[in-house]
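Q: Could you write out the predicted structure for this multi-component system? I'm mainly interested in how the pieces pack against one another.
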Amino acid sequence: MPTVRQKRDNSHGLFHLAIMLFCLLVTSPAVPAGEVTLVAPVDFGSIDLNPGGDTIVIAAHNGPASPAGSRSGVTGGGSGLIQVTSTEAEHVEILFPDSAPLVCGSHSLTIKDIGPHSQYHLTGLDLPGGGVTRTISVGGSLKLQGDEASVSCSGFLSIQLNFF
Amino acid sequence: MKKTWKSSVLLLGTAMLGAVALSGTNAMAGDLNMTVTAVVLSTLTETVTTPLNFGTIDLVPQGDVVTINASAGAATAAATGSSTIVGSTSGLITVSSVGAMTIGITYPAVAQPLLGAVSGDTINLTAIVANSTATGLAKVANVDALIHVGGVVTFPAGTENDTYNGSILITLNYT
């Protein structure tokens, strides 16, 4: 009995090896889909806030943009920038969050309209391959009530990039 | 035997997953965490430093037109006719902030009523835009911006002796 069992185990081993070899034969070499680089953060700048409140917008849907308020003075700042490249032609789907929190000392603010104010929202981006680089500008809007104290705010946008 | 079968299934699964992972389907997904920053400054203040005051007008019987032309700075009232005026002054709004900016100023474009406290009569304040600081005022960093406000009041003949009051809405936008 022990001898018979050993023989059957060996046959399974050969079977496994054959499957693995087959699988390796039918595959092609792994190719990196693309390279993504964060170049610049989203910066709403220094907002000299109108006491009546305001919404600060970085309208980067057509490319790099500066923050602007309709009632407040804004100095500095700019849209975020992502660089993508690939060796082969790829379509890049970009999923922006609906909103993101900004921590401002003991309270928080919310960045909204990130997708509509960013590049390639809904359409995605086509990379031609060959290492050609494309950039994605990222914006959003920040609503301020006008009663905020002087404070520095920071947070993160989680952006998903899918290469096809 | 049973144990051997299980290991076969696991190995087969591993091999298939390996094949998928090594296959030529170039799909890749990843999350990026992009930093976002903002600095909010609450240093901007708007103060009505001085109200617009046409003063005490000793009105000639036939009526008169009284103008405060503050388009070039602080001013007092002047009558077209021979009415005499004391104690008049243009309005002043002071804007303070640390930042440099351009101030967009929107004055009422239509006549603003001034109501007689006793008589209940109404006279009109007009031409505010033409007689006040122009929109697009450049504010220097850390220096107050001054917005002077004037206008024209036409007193018809027979205007009742009274104190006439009103308010005007001026909107300031900063860029």
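A: Regarding packing and overall arrangement: The interface with chain A takes residues 1, 4, 7-8, 11-12, 15-16, 18-19, 21-24, 26-46, 97-101, 139, 172-175 of chain B (CB under 8 Å).
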